[in-house]
Amino acid sequence: MKVFAHTEPGGAAQELEVERPELEGSAVMIRVTNSGVCHSDVHCQDGYFDLGSAGRYELTAAGAQYPVVLGHEIVGEVVAAGPDATVTPGDTKYIVFPWIGCGECQACSEDRENYCSGKKRNLSVQRRGGYAEEVHVPDERYLVPLGDIDPSFGATLACSGLTSYSAIQKIMPVPADKPVAVIGAGGVGLMTIALLKALGHENIVAVDMSEKALENATAMGATATVVAGGEAPHQDIVAAGGEKIAAAIDLVNNGDTSSAALFAMANGGTLVSVGLFGGQFTFPTALVAFNLLNIRGNFVGSLPELKELVKLAQDTDLPKPPITELPLTAQEVNSALDGLRNRTFNGRAVLVAG
Length: 354
What we know:
The protein has about 350 residues and is of the alpha/beta class. The protein has 2 domains: about 1-150 and about 320-350, Quinone Oxidoreductase, Chain A, domain 1; about 160-295, NAD(P)-binding Rossmann-like Domain (Rossmann fold, 3-Layer(aba) Sandwich). The protein has helices at about 40-45, 105-110, 150-170, 185-200, 210-220, 235-240, 255-265, 285-290, 305-315, 330-340; strands at about 1-5, 15, 30-35, 50, 55-60, 75-80, 95, 135, 145, 180-185, 205-210, 225, 245-250, 265-275, 295, 325, 350. Helix 1 crosses helix 10 (about 330-340), helix 3 packs across helix 4 and helix 3 packs across helix 9 (about 305-315). The chain is globular, with a radius of gyration of 20 Å. The mean pLDDT is about 95. Keywords: Metal-binding, Oxidoreductase, Zinc. One of its GO terms (molecular function) is zinc ion binding. Belongs to the zinc-containing alcohol dehydrogenase family.
């Protein structure tokens, strides 16, 4: 089967032919129909994540082996199933939960596989991802029926949607009229805004460097916007929200954005750190204590959270970010990654099989 793989850190995706794996137990093979392109794939293409003064976190340290097949926002159809699987091949479309844990640690036993402390099996890192004709999923339990959701939008729910939904759970409860800042109005930021609005929040401050991104944020439900880069960004955020913010979800998560959020925060507020752009905290530690601030990390979300999100998307007319569809080929994998790296995409990019 064809995969579109990176053979070395920093290299372009190449079309390779690989052997289709044998299916055991409840494993399934999924024919990929839609594969979202996430900004974390840009870091994975580079082969590392920036840890600020702590150096780099190499993709190989996470268990990746080259050639690496990226892509973790997957919608597709079952084309083959293991002997113990109950699903059968057909044209029913599924969203694939890609954040697969070891299956043995306490977190995995509690259905919190994104907290796994063992040997992770995430699609697109430790296992081949969705930039491919087909993807091997180790158990049918990781398939969530798409229903009547648009498949390209549905693909984005597996990461940007799930990450947004899980991050929002970490700031709640927040009174609907209290300001919440969403820092970074790219794919995950736009989904965060859409979900906050769908869940009834009424004071959403979007922060981004791009005027176009902020236009998208307003269309998705932001009630105020801030152009990043001012001399006193925390003051701009407070002014936009009408008072100090109750919470911030930081989809950039570098030293500047985290400091701006924390200086803008009301006593007892919560910062959820999500972005992987790199850097480190530079905020005064004493103020964390004096102001009773909460700082929480968020890495994607759990399978139960994905199921909750998909039900919300099926039952609610969620605002959808702009989506650019491209053919699922090596050339367009590279084009999409370049577009995200250079901020030339408006909204999201999703690769679609011919």
